Amino acid sequence: MENDNIAVGLDIGTTKIVAMIGKTNEYGKMEILGIGKSKSLGVHRGVVNNITQTIQSIQQAVQDAETSSGIKIQDVVVGIAGQHIRSLQHSDYITRGNSDEVIDEEDIDRLCNQVHKLVMLPGEEILHVLPQDFKVDGQAEVKEPIGMYGGRLEANFHVVVGQVSSIRNVGRCIKSAGLELSAITLEPLASAQAVLSQEEKEAGVALIDIGGGTSDLAIFKDGIIRHTAVIPFGGNVITDDIKEGCSIIEKQAELLKIKFGSAWPGENKDNEIVSIPGLRGREPKEITLKNLSKIIHARVVEIIEQIYLEIKNYGHEEQKKKLIAGIVLTGGGAQLQHLKQLVEYITGMDTRIGYPNEHLAGDSDSETTSPLYATAVGLVLNSLQNNEKFSSAKGYDAGEENAVIAEENEVVTDNEITDEEPKERKRFFDKWAEKFKEFLDNAE
Coil, strand or helix: which one is 243? Predict the structure, then answer.
């Protein structure tokens, strides 16, 4: 993959693994070059529990993506989720030696690195340190401190923490599948990038990504990520309930859910019946759609209530923290009929289904704009944006246009923000990736 503006996202889910190859087109939108999908065996609730099967599934998805695009995949950006992810709020400060100099990148780096040294529970590691707002010498609510004078720089952070062993297992699978790991991103953050508009992030919005094994939540307000959570339930528990409640096999339960399932029992008439073929010459089973919907409804209500609890924990009920744009549902589970109505009914918040077409080129295949692929699209986007930032910050040989960007950046060094922002991102991710690679090599 010599081309700098091509990126590959690998979404390792509980039900499916998706490898997606994308590049930026001349209008700055993302074009999908190839996509590969395989059934995910060996992942439970977002956590790898069978390395061999996961490696095979990854290889299958990558191979499909390579075949459909004709591009050889070498490195991937991976999404991480799972029930071991938790997040916390933390505030920290540094005292600057010389308050006559303006605050620069290095000060922010120093502050972020200090947060990275936080003592975690045994077996946990910090995944993301996301600054929320800064304080300079007691002046609060500073969005961008670079270029300001001040002796004490303080910030509130949103820290995302995950289990070392789970992360290591994901890294192990990727390495064994013959791929390089270029970065790791929290899946709800990736989905948010693919589905949400800037206005929604400003107004305040909760993104709920309902996957097979987990439901991920990301809350934005004033354009900044405020809260993340991973709830260990998803579409699979609904399928399990149907399987148990109707005494049928999993494959039939999954089909029933997709074809006839609804989250709102009142929609079905009493006489609507589906007949399911019996196993090996047994009598076919008859199931009323009303009963099917009741089973689904009970479980979906439980999932939504748990997510709503997280939204309340963030403080949605305070006037200042109100999420004006409401809720956006995405992920495979968002395709369940009448789910939007049920979520609005339970939470009283405006709800829409999120399709990952916010940044996609206009002629994208309708299949790839399905909520199923939100995370994969977000991972590719994330990687492309970081690539662009790196190349513009460092003036890579990514064609002349990037060199031009780099030159422009050099011209405006007085206005430090334009020049510095990309570097910090690069450095932060670099450090993370290097640390992570070391960490994997030591694990061998």
Answer: helix
Mean pLDDT of 11-34: 92
- The one-letter amino acid code at 233 reads F
Torsion of CA 95, 97, 100, 104, to 10 degrees: -70
440's tokens: 């994997």
Contacts of 120 (CB under 8 A, 6+ apart): 126, 161
d(CA 34, CA 11): 14
Alpha carbon 198 to chain centroid distance? 16
Q: Does residue 33 fall inside a structural domain?
A: no
Whether the CB-CB separation of 392 and 406 falls below 8 Å is answered with yes
166/123 Cα distance (integer angstroms): 10
For the entire predicted model, the pTM comes to: 0.83
CATH number, residue 287: 3.30.420.40
Domain that holds residue 291: 235-299
Q: Look at the block and give the residue holding tokens 């097979």.
A: 212
Q: What is the number of structural domains in the chain?
A: 1
- The whole-angstrom separation of Cα 375 and Cα 70 is 23
How far apart (Å, rounded) are the C-alpha atoms in residues 185 and 273? Answer: 44
Q: Alpha helices of 315-415 — where are they, by DSSP H?
A: 339-347, 374-394, 399-411
CA distance 413 to 66: 41
The two tokens of residue 266 are 């009142």
Residue 65 lies in a domain: no
Residue 359, pLDDT > 60, answer yes
Model pLDDT, residue 421: 39
Q: Please determine, for residue 24, whether its predicted confidence score (pLDDT) is greater than 60.
A: yes
CA distance 143 to 221: 13
**Residue (of 281, 283, 287) closest to 255 by Cα position:** 287
| 127/168 Cα distance (integer angstroms) | 12
Q: Are 62 and 179 in contact (CB under 8 A)?
A: yes
Whether residue 155 lies inside any domain: the answer is no
pLDDT tens-digit map of 191-207: 999 999 999 999 999 99
User: For residue 61, is it within any domain?
Assistant: no
pLDDT for 407 beyond 70: no
